[in-house]
Amino acid sequence: MSAATGTAWGGPLAGLRVIDLTRVLAGPLATQFLGDLGAEILKVEPPGNGDETRGFAPFIGGESHYFVGLNRGKRSLVLDLRQSEGVEILRDLVATADVLIENFRPGVMDRLGLGAEALMALNPRLIYCAVSGFGLTGPLRDKPSFDIVTQALTGVLSVNGEQGRPPVKMGLPIGDMSGGIFGAIAILSALHERAVTGRGRLIDVSLYDGTMSLLGYFAQLAFLNGQDPVPMGSAHPSVVPYGGFPASDGAIIIACLADGFWPKLCNALGCPELGQDPGLTTMSARRERRAEIEPRIAAITATRSVAEWQQLLEAHDVPHAPVLGVTAALSHPHAVAREMVVATEHPAAGTLRMLGRPIKFPGETQAPLEASPRLGQHTADVLRRDLGFSEERIEALRRLGVIDRIAAEPGA
C-alpha cells in the first residue's frame, strides 16, 4: 500500500510493457529486475520446450530451479516466430509496447523481419535492447559466448583463484549477470531519454563489455605498471589485512579497508603493540610488509573458533564476517529482515521460496512477488486482452501450431 494515498502501489515502472524474447540468464535477469520494479513482462517463448532453462535439472513440480530463479512474475506466451502468423502477432504486440529485449546472436532478428529498424518503424517510441555475447560490432560479433568464455576473454578469470594455481572461474556467473544488470540500467536510461524526446532507441549491450567494465581498479593497475594483476585468493592487492584467516573450526573474514581499523584489530588480536608500531600505521606500509603481517595474524586467529572471533571483532568494531554457505546466508536474520527471501505459490510446484527484490522504496509496499509462469500459461489471455482475438481465432492458431505447442513436461 502507498503510505501517502492508502492505495496499492505497483512499483515505479507500473504501466510499462516489456516484450521479452530472451532466454537462459543475461536477458531474463534484466527483465526480472524490470518486473520487480513493476513493469509487465511478456515472455515470448518458442513452441515445444520454451526457454532452454526449463529443462535444467533439478525440478520441483516439473519446474526447473534455474527457470524459477530468473523468471518470477512474468507472463509466458508461446509463439512460433518461424511462422508468418507468429511474426504478425509479435508485431501487433510490439505496436503498443514500451520495450523489446532480445538476446539472439546478431542478425537473427533481422532475418525474422523483427530487427530494430523494422520494429522501431512500426513503433517509434520502442526501446529495443539487443543483448549478446560480444555486441553488434567488432571482430567477435558473430561468435558464440557463454559465461566462462566471457570471464576468460575479459581478464576476470586470470585474477580469480590463488597465485601459482590454475585459474578458477567465479562461482557466480558474473559474465552473464553483467549483461542482465547493464541491460536493465540501459533500458531505464533510455526510458528517461524517451520521456524528453518522445522517441525510442536501439541499445547494444554485450556480456563482454559489461564484464570488462567490472575490472575496475584491476584495469587501472595494469594501465599503471603494464603488468597483469595476479590472483590472490581472498586477499586484496592493495589493502592489508583483508581476506580470509584460519580459525580453529573454519575461517574468519577480516577487512581493514581503512587505517583506523588497524589498531582496533590489533587490540582484538591481543597484540596492541603491533597497532602502535609506527612502521605499520599506513596501508602502504602494511602492504610492503604483507609477508610479515598476514602469517602473524593467521597464527593468532587459528587459536580460537569463528564464533569467538565474531564476538571479539564485534566488540572492537572491526569489519569481519563468517564464511556462510548459501543456505545459512538465506536464513540469516538480516536477510529475513530485509525481505530478501519471500514465499509465493506456484500452480504446479506449490509453495516456493525465492529471492526478494533487491531495491527498496521506504514508505511504499509493493505487491507480493509472483512465481515464474508455466510455459504458455498466458498466451490466450494476452491475445484476448491485448489484441482482441476471438476464441475461434485462438483455437485456429493452436491447430496451426503457431501458439501453445508444448512438449512433454521436463523432469516428468
UniProtKB/TrEMBL annotation:
Family annotation (InterPro entries): CoA-transferase_III_domain, CoA-Trfase_fam_III, CoA-Trfase_III_dom3_sf, CoA-Trfase_III_dom_1_sf
Any one GO molecular function term: CoA-transferase activity
Domain of life: Bacteria
Keyword vocabulary terms for this entry: Transferase
A Pfam family reported for this protein in Swiss-Prot or TrEMBL: CoA_transf_3
Name this protein carries in UniProt: CoA transferase
Organism, scientific name: Neoroseomonas lacus
